[in-house]
Every structure is written in C-alpha cells, then in structure tokens.
TrEMBL record:
GO CC terms in record: plasma membrane
Protein name per UniProt: Bile acid:sodium symporter
Entry-linked Pfam families: SBF_like
Organism: Pseudomonas bharatica CSV86
Length: 320
C-alpha cells in the first residue's frame, strides 16, 4: 500500500510540475513541432510496451466470464456517458461549456489497464477477469470512444474526416499494441524483468503528451479561460461522478449475484478512466489549444480515482 501511494504521489507531483513548466515555459514554434513528433513516438512506444507485457494466457483465463465483462463494458461505455448527460444541469453552472465538454470526453473513455488490475490484485479480487476486462475495454475504446465523442459532444464533420480520425487512432494505438503482442515471445521475458524502470517509460510518455498539449493550450490562452472557481467546481464534479460510479458498480455487482471477488473486479475495472489512452487519443481527435481544456477533467479525475481506490483496495485486502 505504501509503495502504491508513493507512486501515485510522485506521479501527481510530476504531473503538477509538467503543468507548471508548460504554463511558464510553453513550447511554441519549432520547439512545439519537435515536441509533437516526440509525442507521437512516445505514444507508439507506450502501446507497444503494453502489448509486449500483457500475457495472452492470463487474458484467456478470464475471457470466459462474459457476464462480468458485459457489466464492466456497460459501466464504462453506457453508465458513465449517461451520468455525464443527466448531470449536465448541475455540472454546467459549475465548470462552464468548455470544461463540460471535457467531462463528456472523460465519460467516453475506456477503462485503465494497469491501475484496475493493480487494485483488483491488492483487494484480492478476480485478477484474470480484471486483466481481460481492462484490456478488452482499452481495445474497444479505440473504436467506441470516437463514436461516443461524436454522439455526446456533437462533433460536426463529414464521414471522411471521422473515419480518418478513427484510422489515425488505429495506426497510432492499436498497431503498436498488436506489434507488441506479436513480439511478446521474444520481448515478454525482458519486459517482465525490467518492469520497474519500464513503468517510468509509461509515465514519462504521458507526461510528455501532457506537456505538449498544455503548451499548446497555454499559448492559446487556457488559463485566461479557466479561473480558479471553475477548477474548484471541476474538482467537485469529478468527486461526485466517481462517487456515483463507485456506488453503482458496487450495487449492480451485488444485485446481479456476483461473488465478492467478481464484485471487486467490477468495482475497480468499471469505475476507471484511462489517462494513458485518453490523453493521446485527445491529440488525435481534437485540434489546437482545445486539447488542454478537454483533458483537464481527465487528469483531475485520474488522480482522484487513484487516491480513493487505493483506500478502498486496502479495506478489501484486510478482510478475512
């Protein structure tokens, strides 16, 4: 538990530091073009490593639990968006139009893989099922998230541009992931032995993407359009959204008769939203300074979900 908290605290501090650097020293001009290229390379490396380290045997072991997986997918891609729409009268006055679109984008994202599995393992839940659900959610999100974004956020554009966005996501996220899976017989053992410092590659890739996105947003006037009162309102919205989802996933798992281990998996896999997928996907779906504003709810929600779920996992872990 201490190691998890230390990791989350360090990453939170690093994220805040990157935002501060992007605020005071944003990349612009030629430097912005260089960072954009580095960002695309980092995203490809990130998903290649995810593919190389994800065990197909473990995924297949939990693949047969279809009722659990359907519930997790429903929570991720149906319940979250419905909450985002139904809470609009409450959210909009607190955060304004731009950040509300960011909340909708957050609701459309797939579940995170690493933390969902880590918390399920810590809480002594059904880990193989968590691996299968989280990984499948991440892959489904490559197709479902752009479609949900078009539906929820009223994205205008011809079908060619929409298909181009989906194709760009497939090339940048899915292709490296598949390549990593194909390379797993040769790289899997090496990735497992070096999982400690490779975790820094994961986090470093996300920090690089955040810096690039926020630099663009700052140059476009992000902080002039997001006052402290809206940031506070956004924090309240994220806490409310997480509380509703945690209560709903817990209640649905119990009501549908799942075992305690399965309910733990549903709780942690069905309540997460992936920053590792969401930030680079925003780079592909949205243009210019809008990206910084749109990923701000995701970044805040991500930190809140980690802290809250760390406490919940520890409480489940100490049961008899």
């Amino acid at each position: 538990m201490k190691h998890l908290r230390l990791l989350f605290d360090n990453f939170t501090l690093a994220l805040l530091a990157v935002i501060a650097i992007a605020t005071w020293l944003p990349a612009s001009g030629n430097a912005a073009a260089v960072f954009e290229t580095l960002t695309h390379l980092a995203i490809g490396l990130l998903f290649f490593l995810h593919g190389a380290k994800l065990s197909r045997e473990a995924v297949l072991a939990g693949a047969g639990h279809w009722r659990l997986h359907l519930l997790v997918f429903a929570c991720t891609f149906v319940m979250f968006p419905l909450f985002g729409l139904l809470l609009k009268p409450l959210i909009l006055p607190l955060v304004g139009d731009a950040l509300y679109l960011g909340v909708l984008y957050l609701c459309a994202l797939p579940a995170t893989v690493q933390s969902a599995i880590a918390f399920t393992s810590l809480a002594r839940g059904n880990v193989p099922a968590a691996i299968c659900s989280a990984a499948a959610s991440s892959l489904l999100g490559i197709v479902l998230t752009p479609l949900l974004v078009m539906l929820l956020m009223g994205v205008e554009g011809d079908s060619g541009s929409n298909l181009q966005a989906v194709w760009a996501i497939i090339l940048q996220l899915l292709v490296p992931f598949v390549a990593g899976q194909l390379a797993r017989p040769w790289l899997g053992a090496w990735v497992a032995r070096n999982s400690g410092w490779l975790k820094s590659v994961d986090q470093g890739s996300i920090l690089l993407v955040v810096y690039t996105a926020f630099s663009d947003a700052v140059v476009s006037g992000l902080w002039r359009s997001v006052p402290p009162s809206k940031l506070l309102g956004l924090a309240l919205v994220c806490c409310l959204l997480l509380a509703l989802v945690l209560l709903s996933t817990r209640s649905l798992g119990r009501w549908l008769g799942f075992s305690l281990e399965d309910r733990i998996t549903i709780l942690f896999a069905g309540s997460k939203k992936s920053m590792a997928t969401g930030v680079p996907m925003a780079q592909l779906l949205f243009a210019g300074g809008a990206v910084g504003t749109l990923i701000l709810p995701l970044m805040l929600f991500h930190q809140i979900q980690l802290m809250v779920c760390a406490v919940l996992a520890q409480r489940y872990a100490v049961r008899e």
